[in-house]
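Quick entry between incubations.
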Amino acid sequence: MKRSHTAACLAMLLTQTVIADAPKEHLVNQKAKQFTVTALNAKVGDTVTFKNEDDVSHNIFSLSDAQTFDLGTYGAGQARSLKLESPGAIEVECAVHPNMKMQITVSQ
Amino acid sequence: MKFFNQTLKSGVAGLGLAALALIGTARAEEFRTTEDASVVRGSIVFKTYCILCHGANGEGDGRASKIHDPKPANLTLSFLSDAQKEIIIRKGGASVGRSAVMPAWGEHLTSEQITDVVAYLRKINRQP
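Done. Structure below.
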């Protein structure tokens, strides 16, 4: 009885650990020509989805050393996703709206 | 009599200032419609929206140019006509079979702003 209880506890602990380390999906909206989230903490392997909730096109790009990318320009109602590949600070910008900026801090 | 003279002088001065203001307004309105004014406005639009890829001098070396292939156009060496430039600015690069990275600015800029940017591009073009 005691042995099976210990095994169950170990299994639960393992499951919790796996869930805690599972990649997460983060949602950032683009609304009123601003990012709805200006600072985001995430981990390597997580995904960030940027959804355009405006009626004009938006773009997503970054020139940061941690991760450089251009997800392109996309219209109203569309979304683009980014998988975080390495730790560091990523400044995300919109090429169409120079005032739109947000930062993702990626940890290991 | 002294009071009358002072009032007259003030009135004349006031009329003079009003006339100068009117002339100034007329000249400002006249300037607004010139090519020079269009270039000035266009340079402001360019430095707000285009500089990121095309660079401060329009040579295609903006800070975002490093992530684009093909590289942004060197606008100082462009051989396109004003009408072709306007189409690309308004409808994006993909509309003419060029880079899809160049956005369609027609939904973001007014027609006057696009005309002004074309005027600015005309100004910085070094093609003979």
